[in-house]
């Protein structure tokens, strides 16, 4: 480093719009305030999700597979809306306002859910087993109110999640070695602390839902989110704000349109003739990959819009090399994006069918009955233990022996995928054992609502393995998508990362429907029967383990390609590359 660092952060401003002073803005204190709002978001979302399948089946009287799909679709929509949140943050609101506004939307949704679950008119009457074995299903109006509440929460979650991690990393300056090291630990600690919110959700909140009342638990979620917003706003003067360079979606479309409109033009003799107007310090080295996009930088007649005596470049006709390379960087994220979707399909089973499995098993410890949704405490515990071991043991050892800050982001993703496959295999074995007990117990003990003579702790391995997998994969994904994306597209890349969760949950919903239709036959009692005691959930888990193995092979091929093709960002003058920028090659 040459001399002392400037007191002002080069690419950030304070709340008044002046250059941010590093001594009074940024760092761990404002990052911690951002973490609080994410903890409360996780508290609300997990508190609803992990026990929602039991509410849909036990109170709203939906079939098993349909209940699982409602939960999967809710989660899928939540993460898909991250793209909308990212677009609004980059184009209009900025990350700070996006977090604040959508946190309030989520608080509104949880408040509405608390009211809807407290009013008897908004749920069907309890089953009267003495009169009939059939239960009255929730009406369209009752389900409509429930859906309205859930999807308000989904909207709030999407907008909040798209910006909260990016706004957290904005509080650290990559050009300052000390802050750069702090940001390296931010990814793991970010996930560790929000796991605390998950832990509270699957223990305290689930217990309150089952023993006190769901409306009380959801009311707590609403109040905690409102308090988190107040705390978040209190840090306004301490935050660093990064200036937006416009919507990355528009930038990507401009490159594609410009390249397509000039598809008939010939490439120049050297890249020195390609258009470039970015400042030298922010230019990105030209790469030969996705060469067809380079035609967007070929200068031709009609590229300028004339306004009187002045003219401006028409960005839909001519784009700079740096802008094109930013699009190429986003394209390079897609193979990893596609091959991590399967993990979240497996994850969906842990918070739906695995919880339903738990409702049929012996859950008593003395006089205390463990809520079925609280079994996910082993899932969250696995995440926290794994992150703690990685942060305190693996990272220091690898730094000492190999000089590296732990596993690379691609390695962490691969480890997470491997854990998920083993977890599904363990789930298939546990379910086969549970079904064997159900068959031996006879018709009476196997009906819906009965408790089978098998301990719920049989399910612990699948919760623990998939939880450990999430610890590696989530932090690896977050690191990969943020560090491999252009600076002006980090919010969008975070949204892109979160859509892997969305598509994973939607894929789960699709597979559940497909498997049910294919295996159900005329009586609808196939692998995914209305009563899981009469189905073959073990076969479904085995299918997911097999698909996960195929997906793992595809990921290894993609990871090898990315390591070979990963470009270095740098300065370009003509056809010469002078030096690489501060963006790390994390492979």
Q: Give unreliable regions as ranges.
A: 567-587
First and last CA, distance: 24 Å
CATH class of the largest domain: Mainly Alpha
Query: In the CATH hierarchy, what is the architecture of the largest domain at level 2?
Result: Up-down Bundle
In the residues, how many domains can be counted? 2
Secondary structural class? mainly alpha
Describe this structure in words.
It is a single chain. The protein folds into 2 domains: 8-125 and 138-244 and 333-570, Growth Hormone, Chain: A, CATH 1.20.1250; 248-328, no CATH class. It has helices at 28-58, 64-80, 82-118, 140-169, 177-211, 214-234, 248-261, 321-332, 334-339, 341-350, 353-359, 377-402, 409-441, 443-446, 460-483, 490-520, 537-565; strands at residues 8-13, 19-21, 241-242, 304-307, 310-313, 361-362, 364-365, 368-369, 452-455, 570-573, 576-580. The model is unreliable at 567-587 (pLDDT under 50). Strand 7 and strand 8 form a beta hairpin. The protein is mostly helical. The protein has 17 helices and 11 strands. 49% of the residues are buried. Strands 2-1-3 form a 3-stranded antiparallel beta sheet. Keywords: Membrane, Transmembrane, Transmembrane helix. Pfam families: PTR2. The chain crosses the membrane at residues 70-89, 96-119, 139-160, 190-209, 215-233, 333-350, 370-390, 410-430, 450-474, 495-515, 540-562. InterPro entries: MFS_trans_sf, POT_fam, PTR2_symporter_CS. GO terms for molecular function: transmembrane transporter activity.
């Amino acid at each position: 480093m040459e001399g002392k660092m400037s007191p002002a952060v080069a690419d950030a401003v304070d709340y008044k719009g002046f250059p941010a002073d590093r001594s009074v803005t940024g760092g761990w204190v404002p990052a911690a305030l951002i973490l609080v709002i994410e903890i409360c978001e996780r508290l609300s979302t997990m508190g609803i999700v992990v026990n929602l399948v039991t509410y849909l089946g036990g109170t709203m009287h939906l079939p098993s597979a349909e209940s699982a799909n409602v939960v999967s679709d809710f989660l899928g929509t939540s993460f898909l809306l991250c793209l909308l949140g990212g677009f609004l943050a980059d184009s209009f609101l900025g990350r700070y306002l996006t977090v604040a506004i959508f946190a309030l939307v989520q608080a509104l949704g949880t408040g509405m859910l608390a009211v809807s679950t407290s009013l008897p008119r908004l749920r069907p009457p309890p089953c009267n087993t003495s009169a009939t074995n059939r239960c009255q299903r929730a009406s369209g109006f009752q389900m409509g109110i429930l859906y309205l509440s859930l999807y308000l929460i989904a909207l709030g979650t999407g907008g909040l999640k798209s910006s909260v991690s990016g706004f957290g990393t904005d509080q650290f300056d990559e050009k300052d070695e000390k802050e750069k090291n702090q940001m390296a630990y931010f990814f793991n600690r970010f996930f560790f602390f929000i796991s605390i919110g998950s832990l509270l959700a699957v223990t305290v909140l689930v217990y309150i839902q089952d023993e006190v009342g769901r409306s009380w638990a959801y009311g707590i979620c609403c109040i905690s989110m409102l308090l988190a917003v107040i705390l978040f706003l209190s840090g306004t003067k301490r935050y660093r704000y990064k200036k937006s360079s416009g919507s990355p979606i528009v930038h990507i479309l401009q490159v594609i349109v410009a390249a397509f409109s000039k598809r008939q033009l010939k490439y120049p003799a050297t890249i020195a003739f390609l258009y470039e107007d970015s400042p030298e310090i922010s230019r990105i080295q030209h790469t030969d990959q996705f060469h067809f996009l380079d035609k967007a930088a070929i200068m031709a007649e009609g590229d300028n819009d004339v306004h009187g005596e002045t003219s401006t470049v028409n960005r839909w006709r001519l784009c700079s090399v740096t802008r094109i390379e930013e699009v190429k960087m986003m394209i390079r994220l897609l193979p990893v994006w596609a091959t991590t979707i399967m993990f979240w399909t497996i994850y969906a089973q842990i918070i739906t069918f695995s919880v339903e499995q738990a409702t049929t098993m012996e859950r008593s410890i003395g006089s205390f009955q463990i809520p079925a949704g609280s079994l996910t405490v082993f899932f969250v515990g696995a995440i926290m233990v794994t992150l703690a071991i990685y942060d305190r043991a693996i990272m220091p050892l690898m730094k000492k022996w190999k000089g590296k800050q732990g596993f690379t982001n691609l390695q962490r993703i691969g480890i997470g995928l491997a854990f998920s496959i083993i977890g599904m295999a363990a789930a298939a074995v546990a379910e086969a054992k549970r079904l064997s007990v159900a068959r031996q117990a006879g018709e009476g003990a196997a009906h819906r609502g009965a408790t089978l003579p098998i301990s719920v702790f049989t399910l612990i391995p699948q919760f623990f393995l998939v939880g450990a997998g999430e610890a590696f994969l989530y932090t690896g994904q977050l690191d990969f998508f943020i560090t491999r994306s252009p600076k002006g597209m980090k919010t969008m890349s975070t949204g892109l990362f979160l859509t892997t969760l969305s598509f994973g949950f939607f894929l789960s919903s699709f597979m559940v429907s497909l498997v049910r239709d294919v295996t159900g036959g005329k009586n609808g009692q196939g692998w995914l029967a209305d009563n899981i005691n009469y189905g073959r959930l073990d076969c479904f888990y085995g299918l997911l383990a097999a698909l996960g193995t195929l997906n793992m092979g595809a990921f290894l091929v993609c990871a090898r390609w990315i390591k070979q093709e990963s470009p270095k960002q740098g300065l370009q003058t003509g056809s010469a590359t002078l030096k690489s920028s501060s963006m790390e090659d994390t492979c």
